[in-house]
Every structure is written in C-alpha cells, then in structure tokens.
Amino acid sequence: MRKRAYFFKRMGLTSLVCGLALAGALISGCDTSGGKDDETTYTVIFNRGTGASGTAPVSQEVSKGASITLPGQETMTAPSGKSFAGWKTSESTYAAGASVTINANTTFTAQWTLYGNFYNYPAGRVDANNGRLTITNSTASEVLLFISTAEASNYIGSVGSLSNVKVRLPEEKFYTIVAVDKENYEEQTAQASQFNVLTYYSNTQPYTITVSPSSTYGGGTWIFNNNSGYWVQIKKTDLTENYAVIAPNAIRVSIPIALNTPYDYFVYFSKELKYGGKVVALVETTDRSQANTAIVTNAAEPFTTIIQNVNAESTTIKPAVLVKNNSNKSIRIYYANSQKTNGAIGADFVIGGGKSELISGFETEDSTTSINFSANAWENNKFVPIEMFMQANKVYEITIPANENAAEITVTEVDASRYYN
Q: Which DSSP category does 7 fall into?
C-alpha cells in the first residue's frame, strides 16, 4: 500500500487517493495538510490613506508564514497638518519598521495623525504620583496642554473636561502653560483657541493653576517680540484674562486671533527673583505706555507687538516676603485666613527646618501681622508680632528663631533690588 501511495504522489494524484479513502481511515503517505501549502503566496498591498498624496510603497507577493518589515512614509505626502503614524489592517495597528507575519492577503493603510510628533503623546509629562503642578480644566471639553507655545515638542499632557491632572516639569522655574481645546485644535491646528497662564514649578511645593481655551483664535495672527529681560503678560484691559505670556527675550511668539476684531491690551512685566542662586518668585510691574489695540484685517498681514524693556529703577515692584526658618520644624505659612502665598490652595507653603524661602503674591499695604505660621509640634499658630505695612520695591525678611518663641520673631525691611539676578 505504501508503494502505491508513493506512486500516486509522484503522479500528482495523492489528493485523489486520499479523497477516496473511507471516512475515519488514513492512507499512509497522504498529505493531509493540503498538498502544496509550502508554495502558497499572498498579496500585500499598501494604501496611502485618506487625504495623503504621493506614491504608496509597492505591493508584494509574500510566501505564507514569511515576515515583512513595514516601510516608513517614503514618498507619500501627509495630509495637511498631520504626520505619519504607522500602518493599520482590519485587525491591528503597527509602527513603521515593525515585523509582521503574513498568512493571508493583507492591505496596510497608512495612518496619519495630528499627534505623531507630540512629546510622549498621550501621556506627555502627566505624573499622578510625582507631579507637583496641578492643572485644572474649567471647560466642558478636553484640553491639550503645552509649555510656551502650542507646538508638538512642547506638549505636556491633556486634561479632560472639568477635570485636573498633575504634571512633572523638567526644571524648577517659571513656565508659560498654554491650553488648547482639543477638538478646536484638530479642526484648526495653528489657529485653534488658546489660553496662556504663567506658573512656577517646584519639585517640593505644590502649585495649582486653572486653564481653559480663550477667545483668542481665528484667521489672523498676533506676533510678539519681547526685547526685555522680563516675563510679559499681555492682558485684557479689564484684567480678566491673558491674551499671551511671553518669556524673557522671546522672539516671534504667535497666537491666533479673529479677523476684524479689536483686542485692547495692557502690558505687565514680571521679573524673576533669585535667592541662593535659585529662581523662587516674581515681582511685577506695569508699563501703561506700551498698551495698545491689536487688530488684523487681512490674514496675510499679522499684527506685531514689539515689547520694549523697562527701567527697573523707575518701576513699581510688588512687595515680597523672605522667611528664614531657624527652627528645626517644618512650618506652614498662611496669610490671614486665605491662601495668598505661593503654593496650591489647601496646601499652603511649607518651609523646612533651617531653610529660607522668598515668597511673592503680596500687595502694597498688606500687613506683616496677617502672616502666621503653624507646625504640628506647636499647640497654637504663631503670628508676626511686628506690624509693617508692606511697600512697593521692598522685601520683608521675617526670621523665626531657633527657640520658636513667637515674641522673638523679627521683621526687617530691605530693598528688593538686592534679590535680582
């Protein structure tokens, strides 16, 4: 029987003999796998996808079970505003360069996304465990978050509607946080609505800010050239909103604005203060002479605001407080019954034993006696016993003694200029 089966196989008739075998019986030498599977080939097709142009990679004939390496973008041109993000079949999505085993005719369709070049999208720099900056979204739509400008490399995360995220930023310093409505961005990209806010990031102290996309978007562009060494906040004249926040010496920072719409604005300057070589706070001043009205009537002609430097000696700087904690306790700092010092509401500001911190957020005529301190080791809060009404261009050095005696807390008024870089 073995010889006959071998004879039929040589004659190409094995499948006929096997097909005539009785149900449940096997004929020795029959190929039950289908006869010529080792020679099966499948067609692999590459489709450039919706909105793309150019030439897709050429189709391939691939043996069953063989693997192919997926190509990159090659000569395909991405749809406007999007970037190449890989390939997709009816079942799976793959990155360029992935090795895929082929066991059927397969079509790979190119994927194009707005977020392909975004930093670590979608997670960005969101860090629920170690992030010290809490960003709250006050709108009923998802918001994309950026540092400085709404560019892919500046992406730091996204936050859902009426929600918040904690982010961990690279350095302890001041940042511009830009919020962009996600749906608006997907429709308009560079002309999507934005919101700008200035914040400090600390590895030790928590901070909280609230963002939402604003009305500054449309078919026009507003360009800023900051020729000063200050942070500059471009505010509505009623002070309810920032149109933009421009970093010191930043050139050609742009935001989208609506055509034929006037934007009245004031210019506010903020100078970084350093203590012990580290940026710890800002002092603020205004220059009404640089106020103006931005308007764009033709999309091809942006409105440009050139920000000139200000004379630090002639400007008014808000008061600040330097707390020197000479005790060995970690101390919380409060201003009256409200949160007025740096830090997140509810967390306040904590200074470790033996450390000093410079704190901003005060206004002229604020009283030093409204500042109070607490520590878990104390039964009662301690108040500053010396009343000084804070003045512009001054820093108030408050020293908590090593013996923690509230009566011995001292206050010294010094010129703020000594804290400048």
A: H
